[in-house]
Amino acid sequence: MNRLNNIAIIGGGITGMAAAYYAKQAGAHVTLYESSDRVGGKIKTVYRDGFVLECGPDGYMARKPTLTELITKLGLDEQLVRSQTGTSYIYVRNKLRQMPAGSVMGIPTKFWPMVKTDLFTWRGKARAGMDLVLPRVYAGEDISLDTFFRTRLGSEVVESMIEPLLSGIYNGTLQDMSIESTFPQFITIEQKTRSLILGMKALTPPVQAGVKPREAGKFLSLQNGLGILIEALRPSIDRLYTDTRVASVRPHEIELEDGTIEQFDGIILATSPNALGPILGIPEAERLSQLKRTSSITVLAAFDEKDVAALDGTGYVIAKAEANALTACSWMHKKWPHMAPKGKALLRVYIGSDHVPGLLAATDQAIAEFALNELRKIQHVGTPLFTKVERHVDTMPQYEVGHKQHVHAFEHALAALDGVEACGAILHGVGLPDCVDSAKQAVTRAMTAKQVVRS
Ligand SMILES: Cc1cc2nc3c(=O)[nH]c(=O)nc-3n(C[C@H](O)[C@H](O)[C@H](O)COP(=O)(O)OP(=O)(O)OC[C@H]3O[C@@H](n4cnc5c(N)ncnc54)[C@H](O)[C@@H]3O)c2cc1C
Predict the structure, then answer these.
(1) Residue 4's pLDDT band (boundaries 50, 70, 90)?
(2) Any residues with CB less than 8 A from the CB of 16 and at least 6 apart, and which?
(3) Coil, strand or helix: which one is 269?
């Protein structure tokens, strides 16, 4: 084998698997090391009694095209499905209340729905309207989402709508979250139009007559679950080692936990963030590994449809002030009809990080019962056909204020390690398309370096 083609990838989540694909396409011989007993990382699809159970991510935002392009290249585009759009709710002040029509990522953009909604008091609505006249908040230095939105739209809109919607994506709190690293598009909008309401309104295309809600959906998944994406990527790997932890990486060399040393032209790190520091042993990587991460637990519960309150919509998020352990509940059978057989319902609830530490040691059954009890405070559900509990321990990196500087320092330090690249959720976005994007870029850098070596 020509050693110049020899690439090692460390970590078999979506990032590492996509990196394997791009490296293979570029003509490399690919070896992938995965410390657990399976590839897929956070993507985990389980099939049971006709249900498609997504234990981790269930779909992705189509806005960034790299993942859809990858799915198309893999020949899976026939399997693409769009989430059903429909009414969504927020549980606030002991009641499920409809999200005002025209709200985009928690920002109201339509006048009458905002006037009519029972989500906010008149004082809260008037305060949100001040966005139209307030000066710009972002002044070139990173601030938290909480500071940004509270200043622009006031506390009520933040606590009753924006916080439950946006903090759920990162399983964090708006106070911690960096606007530059999580939702920089809000900075762009504010810079352009000053008012968020007017800026978001200008961005939202009017719903055209004749366009089915299904066609307007922007959240995509695969008919047989995201697990098939991982399976389709697997043939890109020439040598796959599961149950194999990489202990350290030096230029062109990796050392496994058992002391085996192997050499490669290029090494691509696609591990979870906590592994970067120990593997690389440089302060900038240690710093990334020490950044805050949160845990969550998801519980999937399958029912006969008659045993679930008939609700018209795709689910709800829960405001923090409600003191419920759940942060959200997705009606998966409505959001993704392919995930449940006819006549059945599938709910997925998220237990927030504040309640997780006490629950981690509990049995699956105890966790499921706890989740169902919390759920019953909000909506009627009968006895489930079965439940599936998934613990996500320490997995979600928090992009706190100043995150970009840490990433920049890390990437600068990494550039000094010849033949070593890094990608994944800790760097430039936690969404699946972000991960695939970063894998593609890491492979491009690795292969460009290879060409330099060749010439
Ligand atoms: C509950 C939940 C729901 C989510 N929902 C969505 C969603 O709907 N849409 C979306 O876009 N995003 C979602 N996300 C985010 C998204 O799933 C993740 O950001 C993404 O899957 C991360 O992929 P990754 O490959 O970078 O990391 P991971 O999936 O964590 O993979 C890293 C792999 O590296 C391995 N590893 C670690 N250390 C070593 C070592 N030393 N040697 C060898 N291998 C090692 C790990 O075992 C793991 O398999 C969700 C996340 C969670 C937790």
Answers:
(1) low
(2) 9, 10, 32, 34, 39, 41, 268, 270, 271, 424, 439
(3) strand
pLDDT category of residue 210 using cuts at 50, 70 and 90: very low
Residue 78 alpha carbon to ligand 1 centre in Å: 25
Query: Residue 311: what pLDDT?
Result: 76
Best residue among 391, 432, 436, 443 to mutate for probing ligand 1's pocket (most ligand atoms within 8 Å of CB) is 432
* d(CA 422, ligand 1 centre) in Å: 14
88: phi then psi, degrees, rounded to nearest 5? -120, 160
Between 63 and 375, the higher pLDDT residue: 375
Q: Which atom of ligand 1 is nearest to the CA of 296?
A: 1
CA-CA-CA-CA torsion for 173, 177, 182, 183, nearest 10 degrees? 80
Ligand 1 pocket residue status of 277, Cβ below 6 Å: no
- The residue contributing the CA closest to ligand 1 atom 19 is 430
3-state secondary structure of 146: helix
- Tell me if 425 CB under 6 Å of ligand 1: yes
| Domains of the chain, first to last | 3-41+225-292+400-454 (3.50.50.60), 99-203 (1.10.3110.10), 293-397 (3.90.660.20)
Task: Round to whole Å and give the CA distance between 352 and 298.
Answer: 9
User: In this predicted model, what pLDDT tens digit does every residue of 331-375 receive, in sequence order?
Assistant: 999 999 999 999 999 999 999 877 778 888 899 999 999 999 999
- DSSP reduced 3-state for 313: coil
Main-chain phi, psi angles of 305, to 5 degrees: -55, -35
3-state SS, residue 276: helix
pTM: 0.90
* 379 Cβ neighbours under 8 A, 6+ residues apart: 96, 308, 309, 311, 329
246 touches ligand 1 (CB under 6 Å): yes
Query: Which secondary-structure segment (H or E) carries 268?
Result: strand 266-269
Helices (H) and strands (E) in the chain, counts: 19, 20
Q: Which residue's alpha carbon is at the smallest distance from atom 4 of ligand 1?
A: 57
Alpha-carbon distance of 111 to 119, in angstroms, equals 14
User: Is the CB–ligand 1 distance for residue 271 below 6 Å?
Assistant: yes
pLDDT at 47 over 90: yes
Total Cβ atoms within 10 A of residue 14? 30
Is pLDDT of 1 > 60?
no
